[in-house]
Amino acid sequence: MIPTKAILKSVCILFICSIFVGCAARKEHSLFNAPSDVVTDTIKQVYVVNDQGISDAYYKIKIGDQLAIRNVQNPEFGATANNNSGSQSNYTSTTGTAQNILSYPIEPDGMVNLPAIGKVEVVGLTRREATIKIQDLYKQKLLKDPIIELTVVNLKVTLLGEFSKQGNFLLEKDNTSLIEIIGEAGGITKTADPKTLKIIRGDRSYPEIIYVNLTDINSLASKKLILQNNDIIVLQPTKGSALSEKLQSFNNIVQPLLVVVNLAVLIFTVTR
Q1: Between these two residues, 181 and 1, which has the higher pLDDT value?
Q2: Which end of the chain has less neighbouring CB within 10 Å, N or C?
Q3: Domain residues for 132?
Q4: Mean pLDDT in residue range 79-84
């Protein structure tokens, strides 16, 4: 039979192991760890690593972008036009619903081929500048007082971690802020640590990392929180919630073992 002291010793060992396992829980649940992540415990507002300066808040159209264009006065305009250069693209909106948008690619020569007016050079223009240019061309050639709405449908940021909704969110307008995207995602979860938010931006081999303390309202004034195309926004859980989840997992393993130990103790006691 198993001696009682040996059983108690085993239980103590299991308990000590659970403590050590819990200490590593936060790090194990973290996404995209970086050496600079230690600042999250002391950061007051916004802290930037590999600062690449203030990006242009007004996005300029690039080769390979996809433009969705419609006349606000006639929502069907552009959607039913017979245009071989148009590319039917499915994408997920910020609300997570799939939409069918007829989009037009920016070709290698910097031009976009549109119904009725043909090729228009738009590379290097902001969304507003391109809208005005295309609107004037349609007014000259086809439409009376058109109101053109232009969207670059491939601009997005990615939210990961402790948000109510995770995934890709479209940047549908210039100067979209971090708070606006968090609002689109339904806010942060109850287990989120608001001091650990970070934005990974730019060159993936040498990214700019922006740490944000969401508990300080003064951090919202930072121009760094105007989002850029392909930003990755990560929010970690609190140490307590990460530890609780880890202990729960550990408990699911230990519990059956304790049942066996209790049964062994009972048998030992009865047969003495």
Answers
A1: 181
A2: C
A3: 66-152
A4: 43
Read off the CATH number of the domain in which 196 is found: 3.10.560.10
3-state SS string for 102-136: EEEECCCCCEEEECCCEEEECCCCEHHHHHHHHHH
- d(CA 208, CA 17) in angstroms, rounded, equals 38
DSSP-derived secondary structure letter, 74: B
CA atoms of 248 and 77, how far apart (whole Å): 56
Q: Which pLDDT value is given to residue 265? A: 74
CB contact burial 94-121 (16+ within 10 A = b; e otherwise): beeeeeebbbbbbeeebbbbbbeeeebe
What torsion, rounded to 10 degrees, do the Cα atoms 5, 7, 9, 11 define? -150
What are 15-41's pLDDT values in tens digits? Answer: 555 455 444 545 556 677 888 887 777
Q: Record the tokens describing residue 4, joined without a space.
A: 């009682």
Residues 118 and 148 in one domain: yes
Question: Looking at the whole model, is its pTM more than 0.85?
Answer: no
Cβ contact 134:120 at 8 Å: yes
Percentage of residues in the chain having pLDDT higher than 70:
74
